[in-house]
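Appendix B, Record 12. Input sequence as logged:
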Amino acid sequence: MRGLGLHMKLRKSLLRECARVALEQRGFTVELISGAGIVRGARLRAVKGSQERNIAVRTSLDREVGLMRRPNGHWATIPRMDEVIVVAPSEDESGSAEVLSFAPDAIIRVFDAALEARQKENPNFSPKAPIFMALDAASGGRYAVVDSGLKTKAQWQTLVPLASVPRHRLSQTESAVGFIERVRQEFADLHGVDVSKVTVEFRITS
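Logged structural output:
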């Protein structure tokens, strides 16, 4: 996989910006959705004419995608979205990112199948444990729906050259406050509680 040699140098922030570029190339006006616990570029609002879509962006440096679950076993975030975009280093085109769009119900069906397979193997599989799916087909796998690869379920896909991402978009880094709020929100989502109930404290030990 020639393109994956770049992954050590890539930042996920760059991959998220590739999702924004891909949507703009499709004629959408794109704005970032900010909020407590939301990584910059992980939520987008895309508008074109009368269309308005709330989009979750997932990135993967190793071409595997993970979804988190709530304590009740339900998937976090994805069911509330209009579209899910996954961005990964291109497998074949060095210097490009592969951007894939999924309908939320399609991606949930595949992850439901993956979860069912895990639970059959391990009936005590934790309801809090995330599930990971490969974008690409796995040869010799045991589960047809799972091993066919997530990529086959994409509703559209495109390549975005990394050099086409405007540099000024990458200059805005996450502040310390933003980092803490993101950790709080992710912890709250994981345990199914309101973010106001979560306190984060970091200590540096000598």
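Residues 2-197 form one domain.
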